[in-house]
Design goal:
Radius of gyration: 19 Å
Strand content: 25-35%
Number of helices: 9
Shape: elongated
Helix content: 40-55%
Structural class: alpha+beta
Order of helices and strands: EHHEEEEEEHEEHHHEEEHHEEH
Number of strands: 14
Distance between the termini: 23 Å
Largest sheet: 5 strands, antiparallel
Length: 232
């Protein structure tokens, strides 16, 4: 993670996403821009939440880890998205771990400034309400999706979420075979059945499995199978 000291780039992201209509000038003056590389953690489950993070470019993975060390992926996020909104409202520690799937740019604001300049700012409060309710709506959809659609469709949607970032055409990620158990947990199937579906897609020339990774060979056919990406 590195702080980007370029205030003109920060202003560009603010204008791009219309954040000047959400955050007042005192809050904008306390914004800082950060860049995270693929695989870096933005926050970790259980640690104190001191900042509100605004994803302005890139893709994030949100997951939770049980006391037994079992990881459950919650969702993938693309801009514009907020991390730490529920924690800020509830004054709680981070409930999930958030990791950069692709290179990401994030604006951070310390909670002390939010409490000082934002607690009565109506545009900000409406924005946070919208973001939080969208998360609950998406979670409901994801539960229905896992019940209604076959594993092939759920897997296609998951791989698209992991392997591509709509804001970065150059980013083409791969699914590590070490993450397959986590993928099986997310889409609601067994590890054994997931491997059977992957083998089928490899035989059809849509995926390729090699050197500990699964690569997408035919993105368009994978999109056709998925229909849409429920995990974003």
């Amino acid at each position: 993670m590195k702080e980007i000291m370029d205030r003109s780039l920060l202003a560009e992201f603010i204008n791009m996403h219309g954040l000047d209509a959400i955050f007042n000038e005192p809050l904008i003056s306390h914004m800082n821009l950060y860049n995270y590389d693929q695989g870096e953690l933005i926050c970790s489950q259980g640690e104190p939440s001191r900042y509100l993070y605004i994803l302005v470019k890139g893709k994030l993975k949100v997951f939770n880890t049980s006391t037994q060390g079992k990881m459950l992926i919650i969702s993938f996020k693309t801009a514009l998205e907020v991390i730490g909104d529920i924690e800020y409202i509830q004054e709680a520690d981070f409930i999930n771990t958030v990791e950069a799937v692709s290179p990401v740019w994030i604006i951070a604001i310390h909670q002390q400034w939010l409490k000082m300049h934002g607690k009565d700012h109506t545009p900000l409060l409406k924005f946070l309400l919208k973001i939080i309710t969208e998360k609950f709506y998406m979670k409901s959809n994801a539960l229905s999706f896992n019940l209604m659609y076959p594993v092939e469709v759920r897997l296609a949607s998951y791989i698209l979420s992991v392997s591509f970032d709509p804001s970065d055409a150059l980013f083409k990620g791969n699914l590590s075979t070490s993450e397959l158990r986590d993928a099986a947990n997310l889409i609601g199937t067994s590890y054994r059945h997931l491997n059977r579906v992957i083998l089928q897609l490899c035989q059809e020339g849509i995926l390729e499995r090699s050197k500990g990774f699964i690569h997408v060979k035919d993105k368009e056919r994978l999109i056709t199978i998925a229909g849409h990406s429920i995990y974003e």
